[in-house]
Amino acid sequence: MEIRNNNTTAHLKTAGGALLNWWRAATLDGLIVGVLWLIGLELIRVPFAPLWAVLGGILQIVPTFGGMIALIGPVLAVAFSGHDEWRLGLVLGLYGLIVILEGLVIGPYVLHRTTKVPWWAAFLGPIVLGIVIPFWGVLLAPPLLAVVFAFRKQPGAPPL
What we know:
The protein is mainly alpha-helical. The chain is 82% helix and 0% strand.
């Protein structure tokens, strides 16, 4: 009974450590996205740019919809400040650039550096799970990948 209890404790520590590392990766990802929002919005001269950048970084934690929700504030700020459509187009272009950078480069890189999830798995995991389990697959893919690859790193685990 004692051996089984130690084994369970070791598995819980591995899973807990993997989830903690995933949370660190998600926080760092949000921080990087927030800085990108701040730089871009300040260059475009959007009113209340620091507020929108902080919200953009915080909402980055919400998969798929967080970035879209973060876009509402800067778009409304530009629309109500009497600026032309050119600035509105720049804000939308900034959003597109941030989404592409985060999805293809920043997110997979940060997840790999923090949790040792391979880049290809960090990139393809949310896509595959999003097809298998719409919405929930995208939400659960990064922490699930962190736990799976934490167990794969243990001694005696088969190589991938």
